Amino acid sequence: MTEAAIEVKDLEMRFGETVALGGLTLQVARGELFGLLGPNGAGKSTTINILTGLLEPTAGSTRVGGHVLPAQARAVKEMIGVCPQEFGIFPYLTGRENVLLFGELAGMPRRELKARADELLKKMGLDGEADRRVRGYSGGMKRRISVVTALIADPQIAFLDEPTTGLDPQSRRAVWDFILSLKERQRTVVLTTHYMEEAEVLCDRVAIIDHGTLIALGTPADLKAQNGAKDLEEVFLKLTGRRIREGM
Amino acid sequence: MNWQRVSAMVRKDLKGTVREPAALFILLLFPVVLTVIFAVTFGGIGGSGATAYQVGFVDLNASGPAGHWSADLAANLTATQILQIKSYPDNVTAQEDLAVGNLQAVLVIPANFGASCDAYRASPANTSSWVYTSLALYVDQGSMVATQAIPPIVAQSLVRTLESTVSASSSLPITVGSPALIDVAHRSAFDYMVPGIFAYGAIFITMTVGGSFSSDREDGRLRRLNTTRLTPGEFMTSKVVSNMAVGLAQVGLIFAVAFAIGYRPSTDVVGLALAFFLVSVLAVACVGFGLITATLARSSSAATGIAFLFVIPQMFFGTFVSGMAPSAVTASVGRFMPAYYVTDALTSLFLRGVPASNLVVLADLAWVGLASVLVLAVGILLFRKFGRS
Question: Hey, of A74, A101, A190, which one would you mutate to test binding to chain B, going by the most B CBs within 10 A of its CB?
Answer without folding.
Answer: A101
